[in-house]
Design a protein that fits this description.
The chain is of the alpha+beta class. The chain has 9 helices and 11 strands. It has helices spanning 25-34, 56-65, 78-88, 103-109, 118-125, 184-231, 242-273, 285-307, 315-339; strands at 5-11, 15-21, 38-39, 45-46, 69-76, 93-99, 113-114, 130-136, 141-147, 155-160, 178-180. Strand 3 (38-39) and strand 4 (45-46) form a beta hairpin. The longest helix has 48 residues, at 184-231.
Amino acid sequence: MAEAQIILSHSRESGIVGIASGEQYKWAHTALAESGFQRGEAGAWHLPADGTGTTVLDLVRCAQRHRTSVHTSSRRFIGDAASDLARQLPGRWEASVEIYSHPAWQEDLVPWIWDGGELGRALQNERIPYAATLTDTVHDTTLLFIERPDSHLDYLVGAFTPEAFEEGYGDPHAPHSIVLPPFPGRAAQALTNRYLPAYDQAVHARRTAAIAAALDEIRSEYETWQAMVASGRYSDATPLDAAALGTAVEEFLDQSWHRFLPVLDHAPTLLNECLPARSPWPEDAAALSRLTDSVLQARALLEGVIQGSVAPQERPARAWPAIHTWLTDDERFLRQARLSAPHRRPALPVAAPARSLTAGARPAPHGH
C-alpha cells in the first residue's frame, strides 16, 4: 500500500468527500488542498458548495505529483451512514466521524475498545482509516461504527470501554460486536434488540465482578492483618511491637480504603437495580439498605476530603465502618446483583402489522 492515499466517497450534504490515509498522510492533505478541497471539522475534506471546477481526474493528477494514490469507495460517506442510523435509534444518539489517517492512531484506539468479537480483531489486524462514533447521551454509551472489512455492504458496531472502567482490551466480560446491514431501519433493530441488551448486561456483570474482586482483596488482607495482630508477629515471625502495630493498622486501613474505591464507583448503580422483593431472598432488603447507607457515608467522607472539611489522614479510619459493613453483607449483595438485570433502554416503536382479511371481510373488487 502506498505511503499516502486519498479515499473518496459521496455525501448527500457535502458532495465528494476525501479522507487522507497512510504514514505520509500529509502528502495527501497537500494534494487535496491544491485541488480545491476544504478541510472540515472532523478532518474530512470536501469540495466547497459553490464548486471550483475541480474533477476527480484533476485530483488524481495532483495527487500523483505528491506521491499519493486515489481510491474511490463503493460506499457512501460513513458520516451519513452513522447519522441515518442514529436518527433511527430510540433515545438521544449523536453521531460523529473519527479519522485515523496515521496507522498509529488506530493502534492507540485498540486498548479502549471493549469487544470480544470481530470488531476488536479487525482493529488489530485490518487497516481502518476512518470510523464513526454513536453516543447515547442519556446512558453514557459510546459505540464504534466501521465498514466491515472484506464486505461491500455491511458494517460492524461495538463498544468503547465505559468511563467507569479502565482499558477494555482482553476483558472477558466484553460484549461481542455485531454485523449491521446497510439499511438504517434494520440496523437500528439489530442494535436495539440484540446488541444494546447484551452490552448493558456485560456492563452489569463487570460492575458486579469489580465489586466482588475488591471485597475479596480487602477480606484477604483483613484476615492476614487479624492473624498478625493475634500472633504479635509479622508474617516472617519478626516480633510486632506497639509502634509497629500502630503503623500496621494505619497501612491496612489506608490500603483498604483504596481497595474500596471500586465499590463506591459501581455499587450505587447495582443497588438501584436490585429488587429483593422479587427474589428468593426478600429478607436481603435490610442488608441492601445498610449497604446503601454505608456507600452514602463513604462518598460523603470522600467529598469532605476533597472540600477540605475532613483531613486526609482521618479518612481511612472513618471509612472502615462502611468497609466492614460490605464485608459483612457482601454475599447478600452479590446474590441479589447477580440475579438482577440492568434497567431497560427505550425500545423501538412497534410497526403496525399489515392489515389482513378477516372471515367477514370482502376483498376489494378487481377492475374490469
